[in-house]
Protein backbone atom coordinates (compact mmCIF):
# COMPACT_ATOMS: atom_id res chain seq x y z
CA UNK A 1 0.00 0.00 0.00
CA UNK A 2 1.28 3.42 -0.91
CA UNK A 3 0.48 6.17 1.61
CA UNK A 4 -0.45 9.33 -0.24
CA UNK A 5 -1.05 12.74 1.31
CA UNK A 6 -0.49 16.37 0.44
CA UNK A 7 0.99 18.96 2.77
CA UNK A 8 0.07 22.64 2.61
CA UNK A 9 2.12 25.35 4.34
CA UNK A 10 -1.06 27.27 5.14
CA UNK A 11 -4.80 27.09 4.55
CA UNK A 12 -4.78 29.65 1.73
CA UNK A 13 -3.52 27.04 -0.75
CA UNK A 14 -6.53 24.79 -0.06
CA UNK A 15 -9.72 24.89 -2.16
CA UNK A 16 -12.32 27.18 -0.59
CA UNK A 17 -14.59 24.24 0.32
CA UNK A 18 -11.79 22.67 2.37
CA UNK A 19 -10.97 26.00 4.06
CA UNK A 20 -14.64 26.45 5.01
CA UNK A 21 -14.71 22.94 6.50
CA UNK A 22 -11.51 23.62 8.47
CA UNK A 23 -12.90 26.94 9.75
CA UNK A 24 -16.03 25.13 10.94
CA UNK A 25 -13.85 22.55 12.69
CA UNK A 26 -11.80 25.35 14.26
CA UNK A 27 -14.98 26.97 15.59
CA UNK A 28 -15.91 23.63 17.14
CA UNK A 29 -12.78 23.67 19.32
CA UNK A 30 -14.66 26.30 21.36
CA UNK A 31 -17.40 23.75 22.07
CA UNK A 32 -15.01 21.09 23.35
CA UNK A 33 -15.31 20.03 26.97
CA UNK A 34 -11.69 19.34 27.91
CA UNK A 35 -11.13 20.34 31.56
CA UNK A 36 -8.68 17.47 32.17
CA UNK A 37 -6.39 17.56 29.15
CA UNK A 38 -6.93 21.18 28.08
CA UNK A 39 -6.64 19.77 24.56
CA UNK A 40 -9.61 20.93 22.50
CA UNK A 41 -10.37 19.23 19.19
CA UNK A 42 -12.94 20.27 16.61
CA UNK A 43 -14.21 18.32 13.63
CA UNK A 44 -16.60 19.00 10.80
CA UNK A 45 -18.02 16.49 8.33
CA UNK A 46 -19.30 17.34 4.88
CA UNK A 47 -22.03 15.02 3.65
CA UNK A 48 -22.80 14.31 0.01
CA UNK A 49 -25.94 16.47 0.31
CA UNK A 50 -23.84 19.47 1.39
CA UNK A 51 -24.85 19.35 5.06
CA UNK A 52 -22.03 20.05 7.53
CA UNK A 53 -22.05 18.13 10.82
CA UNK A 54 -19.83 19.48 13.63
CA UNK A 55 -18.23 17.66 16.53
CA UNK A 56 -15.94 18.46 19.46
CA UNK A 57 -14.20 16.30 22.02
CA UNK A 58 -16.14 15.69 25.22
CA UNK A 59 -14.06 14.51 28.17
CA UNK A 60 -15.26 12.73 31.26
CA UNK A 61 -13.61 12.23 34.66
CA UNK A 62 -13.67 8.53 33.78
CA UNK A 63 -11.35 8.99 30.81
CA UNK A 64 -12.52 6.06 28.67
CA UNK A 65 -16.07 7.46 28.81
CA UNK A 66 -15.16 10.59 26.84
CA UNK A 67 -15.44 10.87 23.07
CA UNK A 68 -13.19 12.35 20.43
CA UNK A 69 -14.45 15.10 18.12
CA UNK A 70 -14.29 12.85 15.08
CA UNK A 71 -16.55 10.18 16.56
CA UNK A 72 -18.96 12.78 17.96
CA UNK A 73 -19.40 14.16 14.42
CA UNK A 74 -19.57 10.75 12.71
CA UNK A 75 -22.15 9.31 15.10
CA UNK A 76 -24.21 12.51 14.94
CA UNK A 77 -24.21 12.29 11.13
CA UNK A 78 -25.31 8.66 11.20
CA UNK A 79 -28.18 9.54 13.52
CA UNK A 80 -29.25 12.78 11.85
CA UNK A 81 -28.66 11.88 8.20
CA UNK A 82 -28.89 8.07 7.93
CA UNK A 83 -27.81 6.69 4.59
CA UNK A 84 -26.17 9.95 3.46
CA UNK A 85 -22.50 9.45 2.60
CA UNK A 86 -19.74 11.38 4.33
CA UNK A 87 -17.44 12.94 1.75
CA UNK A 88 -14.80 14.44 4.01
CA UNK A 89 -13.88 15.41 7.53
CA UNK A 90 -11.79 18.34 8.73
CA UNK A 91 -10.02 18.18 12.09
CA UNK A 92 -8.29 20.93 14.07
CA UNK A 93 -7.03 21.26 17.63
CA UNK A 94 -5.57 23.65 20.16
CA UNK A 95 -3.80 22.97 23.43
CA UNK A 96 -3.61 25.12 26.57
CA UNK A 97 -0.28 26.66 25.53
CA UNK A 98 -1.42 27.18 21.92
CA UNK A 99 1.88 25.75 20.74
CA UNK A 100 1.03 22.80 18.51
CA UNK A 101 3.70 22.33 15.85
CA UNK A 102 1.77 20.22 13.36
CA UNK A 103 -1.81 19.24 12.55
CA UNK A 104 -3.31 16.64 14.87
CA UNK A 105 -4.11 13.21 13.45
CA UNK A 106 -7.05 11.08 14.59
CA UNK A 107 -6.37 8.52 17.30
CA UNK A 108 -6.50 4.82 16.47
CA UNK A 109 -10.13 4.48 17.61
CA UNK A 110 -11.23 7.33 15.33
CA UNK A 111 -9.14 6.06 12.42
CA UNK A 112 -10.79 2.65 12.79
CA UNK A 113 -14.28 4.22 12.92
CA UNK A 114 -13.52 6.30 9.81
CA UNK A 115 -12.29 3.23 7.92
CA UNK A 116 -15.37 1.27 8.96
CA UNK A 117 -17.49 4.19 7.72
CA UNK A 118 -15.73 4.03 4.34
CA UNK A 119 -16.52 0.32 4.11
CA UNK A 120 -20.17 0.85 5.12
CA UNK A 121 -20.74 3.53 2.52
CA UNK A 122 -18.46 1.95 -0.10
CA UNK A 123 -16.78 5.31 -0.67
CA UNK A 124 -13.67 7.03 0.70
CA UNK A 125 -13.73 9.82 3.27
CA UNK A 126 -11.20 12.54 2.56
CA UNK A 127 -9.28 13.66 5.66
CA UNK A 128 -8.27 17.32 6.08
CA UNK A 129 -6.06 18.08 9.08
CA UNK A 130 -5.34 21.70 9.87
CA UNK A 131 -3.26 23.72 12.30
CA UNK A 132 -4.73 27.20 12.77
CA UNK A 133 -2.28 29.79 11.43
CA UNK A 134 -0.23 26.89 10.17
CA UNK A 135 -0.28 24.06 7.73
CA UNK A 136 -2.65 21.40 6.58
CA UNK A 137 -2.43 17.78 5.49
CA UNK A 138 -4.97 16.25 3.10
CA UNK A 139 -5.49 12.53 2.49
CA UNK A 140 -7.92 11.00 0.00
CA UNK A 141 -8.96 8.18 2.32
CA UNK A 142 -9.03 7.25 6.00
CA UNK A 143 -7.11 4.11 5.03
CA UNK A 144 -4.02 6.32 4.85
CA UNK A 145 -4.30 6.75 8.64
CA UNK A 146 -4.34 3.06 9.52
CA UNK A 147 -3.23 0.91 6.59
CA UNK A 148 -3.52 -2.37 8.53
CA UNK A 149 -6.94 -1.76 10.03
CA UNK A 150 -9.36 -4.32 11.40
CA UNK A 151 -12.47 -4.99 9.30
CA UNK A 152 -15.54 -7.20 9.12
CA UNK A 153 -13.46 -9.52 6.94
CA UNK A 154 -11.29 -10.23 10.01
CA UNK A 155 -14.21 -11.53 12.07
- Oligomer designation: single chain
What characteristic shape results from the CA principal axes? globular
**Count of β-strands:** 6
Compute the separation of the termini in Å: 22 Å
Stated plainly, the CATH topology is called Cytidine Deaminase, domain 2
Structure description:
This protein has 155 residues and is of the alpha+beta class. It has a single domain, classed as 3-Layer(aba) Sandwich (Cytidine Deaminase, domain 2), CATH 3.40.140.10. It has three helices and six strands; from the N terminus they run E-H-E-E-H-E-H-E-E. A six-stranded mixed sheet has the order 1-6-5-4-2-3. It is globular and about 40 Å long. The two termini are 22 Å apart.
Q: What's the helix and strand layout?
A:
Blueprint (H helix, E strand, L loop, with lengths): L5 E3 L7 H13 L10 E9 L4 E5 L12 H12 L5 E10 L12 H14 L4 E5 L5 E4 L16
Amino acid sequence: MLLVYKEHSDWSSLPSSERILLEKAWTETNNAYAPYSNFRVGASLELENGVLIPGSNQENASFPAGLCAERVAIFAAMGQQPGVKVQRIAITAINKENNLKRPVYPCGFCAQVLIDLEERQNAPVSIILGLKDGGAVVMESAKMLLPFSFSKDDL
